[in-house]
Protein backbone atom coordinates (compact mmCIF):
# COMPACT_ATOMS: atom_id res chain seq x y z
CA UNK A 1 0.00 0.00 0.00
CA UNK A 2 2.82 2.40 0.90
CA UNK A 3 4.59 1.60 -2.38
CA UNK A 4 1.37 2.36 -4.29
CA UNK A 5 1.05 5.75 -2.59
CA UNK A 6 4.70 6.57 -3.33
CA UNK A 7 4.17 5.68 -6.99
CA UNK A 8 1.03 7.86 -7.16
CA UNK A 9 2.89 10.80 -5.60
CA UNK A 10 5.78 10.41 -8.05
CA UNK A 11 3.38 10.32 -11.00
CA UNK A 12 1.50 13.35 -9.68
CA UNK A 13 4.77 15.24 -9.24
CA UNK A 14 5.87 14.39 -12.80
CA UNK A 15 2.48 15.50 -14.13
CA UNK A 16 2.79 18.80 -12.27
CA UNK A 17 6.26 19.36 -13.72
CA UNK A 18 4.92 18.68 -17.22
CA UNK A 19 2.07 21.17 -16.70
CA UNK A 20 4.56 23.80 -15.50
CA UNK A 21 6.61 23.16 -18.64
CA UNK A 22 3.50 23.65 -20.80
CA UNK A 23 2.72 26.86 -18.91
CA UNK A 24 6.20 28.12 -19.81
CA UNK A 25 5.64 27.23 -23.45
CA UNK A 26 2.32 29.11 -23.45
CA UNK A 27 4.05 32.08 -21.80
CA UNK A 28 6.54 32.17 -24.68
CA UNK A 29 3.76 32.22 -27.29
CA UNK A 30 1.94 35.02 -25.44
CA UNK A 31 5.21 36.98 -25.35
CA UNK A 32 5.81 36.44 -29.07
CA UNK A 33 2.29 37.60 -29.85
CA UNK A 34 2.52 40.58 -27.49
CA UNK A 35 5.78 41.64 -29.14
CA UNK A 36 4.17 41.31 -32.58
CA UNK A 37 6.43 38.45 -33.68
CA UNK A 38 3.49 36.09 -34.24
CA UNK A 39 -0.16 36.71 -34.97
CA UNK A 40 -3.04 36.14 -32.58
CA UNK A 41 -4.10 33.35 -34.93
CA UNK A 42 -0.75 31.61 -34.39
CA UNK A 43 -1.19 32.07 -30.63
CA UNK A 44 -4.60 30.42 -30.97
CA UNK A 45 -3.13 27.47 -32.90
CA UNK A 46 -0.23 26.92 -30.50
CA UNK A 47 -2.35 27.56 -27.41
CA UNK A 48 -4.95 25.05 -28.53
CA UNK A 49 -2.23 22.44 -29.03
CA UNK A 50 -0.85 23.19 -25.56
CA UNK A 51 -4.34 22.81 -24.07
CA UNK A 52 -4.65 19.38 -25.68
CA UNK A 53 -1.29 18.32 -24.24
CA UNK A 54 -2.35 19.58 -20.80
CA UNK A 55 -5.55 17.50 -21.00
CA UNK A 56 -3.47 14.42 -21.83
CA UNK A 57 -1.24 15.02 -18.80
CA UNK A 58 -4.18 15.64 -16.47
CA UNK A 59 -7.78 15.89 -17.74
CA UNK A 60 -8.55 18.11 -14.74
CA UNK A 61 -5.46 20.32 -15.07
CA UNK A 62 -7.59 23.44 -14.56
CA UNK A 63 -8.16 22.37 -10.94
CA UNK A 64 -4.46 21.97 -10.12
CA UNK A 65 -3.48 24.30 -7.31
CA UNK A 66 -0.95 26.91 -8.39
CA UNK A 67 -1.86 26.77 -12.07
CA UNK A 68 -4.97 28.96 -12.04
CA UNK A 69 -3.39 31.57 -14.34
CA UNK A 70 -2.49 28.82 -16.81
CA UNK A 71 -6.17 27.85 -16.97
CA UNK A 72 -7.24 31.49 -17.37
CA UNK A 73 -4.78 32.04 -20.21
CA UNK A 74 -6.00 28.90 -21.98
CA UNK A 75 -9.60 30.11 -21.65
CA UNK A 76 -8.53 33.35 -23.35
CA UNK A 77 -6.81 31.33 -26.10
CA UNK A 78 -10.05 29.40 -26.71
CA UNK A 79 -11.82 32.71 -27.34
CA UNK A 80 -9.31 33.54 -30.09
CA UNK A 81 -11.15 31.19 -32.45
CA UNK A 82 -13.35 34.25 -33.14
CA UNK A 83 -11.68 36.52 -35.71
CA UNK A 84 -13.05 39.70 -34.12
CA UNK A 85 -11.48 38.75 -30.79
CA UNK A 86 -8.17 37.97 -32.53
CA UNK A 87 -8.30 41.38 -34.25
CA UNK A 88 -9.06 43.07 -30.93
CA UNK A 89 -6.13 41.28 -29.25
CA UNK A 90 -3.86 42.51 -32.05
CA UNK A 91 -5.06 46.11 -31.65
CA UNK A 92 -4.95 45.99 -27.86
CA UNK A 93 -1.83 44.08 -26.82
CA UNK A 94 -2.56 44.86 -23.18
CA UNK A 95 -5.11 42.02 -23.37
CA UNK A 96 -2.20 39.68 -24.07
CA UNK A 97 -0.01 41.38 -21.47
CA UNK A 98 -2.44 40.58 -18.66
CA UNK A 99 -2.05 36.86 -19.36
CA UNK A 100 1.66 37.20 -20.08
CA UNK A 101 2.20 38.54 -16.55
CA UNK A 102 -0.09 35.90 -15.06
CA UNK A 103 1.93 33.13 -16.68
CA UNK A 104 5.24 34.46 -15.34
What does this structure look like?
The protein has about 100 residues and is mainly α. The chain contains five helices and no strands. The longest helix has about 35 residues. The radius of gyration is 15 Å and the shape is elongated.
How would you concisely characterize the structure shown here?
The protein is mainly alpha-helical.
The quaternary state of the protein chains shown equals single chain
Total helical elements: 5
**Annotation, overall tally of beta strands:** 0
Structural class: mainly alpha
Low-confidence stretches: none
The biggest sheet, with number of strands, parallel, antiparallel or mixed sense and barrel status, is:
none
Q: Any idea what the radius of gyration is? A: 15 Å
Strand % is: under 5%
Alpha-carbon distance between the two ends: 38 Å
Helix and strand sequence: HHHHH
Instruction: Assign a percent range to the helix content.
Output: over 70%
- Shape by Cα distribution: elongated
The domain tally reads 1
> If you average the pLDDT, what whole number results?
90
SSE topology:
Layout: H1 2-34, H2 40-57, H3 68-79, H4 83-91, H5 94-103
Helix pairs in contact: 1-2, 1-5, 2-3, 3-5
Task: Jot down its keywords.
104 residues; mainly alpha; 5 helices
Amino acid sequence: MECQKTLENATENENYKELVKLRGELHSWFRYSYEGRVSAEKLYQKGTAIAEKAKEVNPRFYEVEGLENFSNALEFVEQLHDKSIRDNATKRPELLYIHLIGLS
